[in-house]
Amino acid sequence: MDATDIPTTQTVARVQNPGPEAQFIIQDGQAVPHLSQTQILVKLLVSGLCHSDLNRVYGTLPLISDIVGHEGVGIVVKAGSAATTHMINKRVGLGWLSHPCMECEVCDVEYTSCPKQQNLGRDLPGTFQQYIAVDAGFVHPLPDNLQSQIAAPLLCAGISMYSAIRKCNLQTGNWLLIPGAGGGLGHLGVQIARAQGYRVIAVDTGEDKRKMCLEFGAAHFIDFVTQDVPTEVTRLTSLGVHGVICTAGSIAAYQQAAQCVRNAGTVVCIGVNPQNLPISPLDMALGSSAVLLALFLKCKSCFNLQLGAK
């Protein structure tokens, strides 16, 4: 697209009355964003809808921008004066992290944890619009064989699961337990872990979830309604799993995670539960440094999207 072809107005979907009675309102004639020196303009092709977007729409989480969305794929159509022009006409992905300050001591160590960061769909207008202005340094070029509608959720849920799997420090052939494996995060985790050579035990309930998880590469499926999860894990692995990524937010799932991980294993927390979790530090310590890690939804380098294309 030539710069002269870029319209001055666009259509956006805005959140009206955030809270239990929230609605999306479609508005035409809204201004196409102007670029700062370091930004690029992306014409969006698709946008995913993350559960955290719904939490902001319905008032569970704070909402600053009334345009949500942080799982976008589009074509770069314009670059700011200080941004590289080689990305123009290239297809890119946009994720949650849009603008860390890059000046604080946290950024020196891990800029994805910047306390001053700005995020698409929260502080900044998100991907529920036709055109979006984003920092050129925080978009992800996409491989040609990865379809846009598949890439979009990988830019949030996919990165979250890839990051969580990395935190488990697994070796090829190790056991990985995923409670909530049939959900939005979990089913991606099954596929990513399998592609990296890990043996996945999927935990969920129902025949449909069982079939899906096994088709996506899980070695085993445990139905938490009809089976005792720790007993089954012990039967399958003898010593327990090397890692657990708990995408389910229930207290029972976290209790079982601590019971299923082997000595020196790792539990990564992704599923959110507002209640206190009754997990004993003593139990973790007696497991010879089994570690309970805090939620980690961000990955400094976007995970290998060629892996996602598989």
UniProtKB/TrEMBL annotation:
Pfam families: ADH_N, ADH_zinc_N. SMART domains: PKS_ER. SUPFAM superfamilies: GroES-like, NAD(P)-binding Rossmann-fold domains. Gene3D superfamilies: Medium-chain alcohol dehydrogenases, catalytic domain, NAD(P)-binding Rossmann-like Domain. Keywords: Metal-binding, NAD, Oxidoreductase, Zinc. It comes from the Eukaryota. InterPro entries: ADH-like_C, ADH-like_N, ADH_Zn_CS, ER, GroES-like_sf, NAD(P)-bd_dom_sf. GO terms for cellular component: cytoplasm. Its cofactor is Zn(2+). Residues 19-308 form the Enoyl reductase (ER) domain. GO terms for molecular function: alcohol dehydrogenase (NAD+) activity; zinc ion binding. Transmembrane segments: none annotated. Belongs to the zinc-containing alcohol dehydrogenase family. This is Related to alcohol dehydrogenase.
